[in-house]
Amino acid sequence: MHVRNVMTTLTNTLSLAELSEANISEQARAAHEPAWMVERRVAAWQAYAVAEAPFWRRTDLTKLDLTVPVALAAPQSTQLVWDAALAAQGVIFMPLAQALIEHTELVEQYFAKAVAGDTHKYRLLHSAIWQDGAFLYVPKNVTIEAPLRAIFNVAE
Q1: From residue 89, how far is each of 31, 103, 136, 143 by CA, in Å?
Q2: pTM for this model (two decimals)
């Protein structure tokens, strides 16, 4: 079993009211994200800015405080637990931020395909300001029997 810990320190702590297209693209470029991801984030932010909030019968959004910081300020770690022998079969399991750099073409091909990021205002927001996640690529005809775990920790 292989355990990989990756620490990410994010320095941008702004509220939704303070966020801008410039902040988002600057932070993405500082993280060495490829141009296509920067463009995707900016497009999502632009769409978020003009989108109507969804109506949810049982959720009152009128108390949503846009002055609360939304980006993580404290170090966060992503711990991945998996059988590293799977890598010999072409399986890739790593933090999304790392995969963006090491496997740009694969991430571009599959990113946000299972859940569309443009279905409502808050998914657009997530598409613009997400911090990290786990990237899993399993080649065709490869089967994984053992569980894979991604554990995200945020320091306070």
Answers
A1: 29, 16, 13, 9
A2: 0.80
Alpha-carbon span 28 to 128, nearest angstrom: 10
Residue type at 73?
A
Rg (CA), the chain: 17
Alpha helices in the chain (DSSP H): 21-30, 35-50, 96-102, 104-110, 121-129
Q: Which long-range contacts (CB under 8 A, 24 or more apart) does 47-51 make?
A: 47/118, 47/124, 48/121, 48/124, 48/125, 48/127, 48/128, 51/120, 51/121, 51/124
Q: How far apart are CA 144 and CA 90, in angstroms?
A: 11
DSSP state of 89: G
pLDDT for 13-62, tens place per residue?
A: 677 888 889 989 998 998 899 999 999 999 999 999 999 888 888 988 87
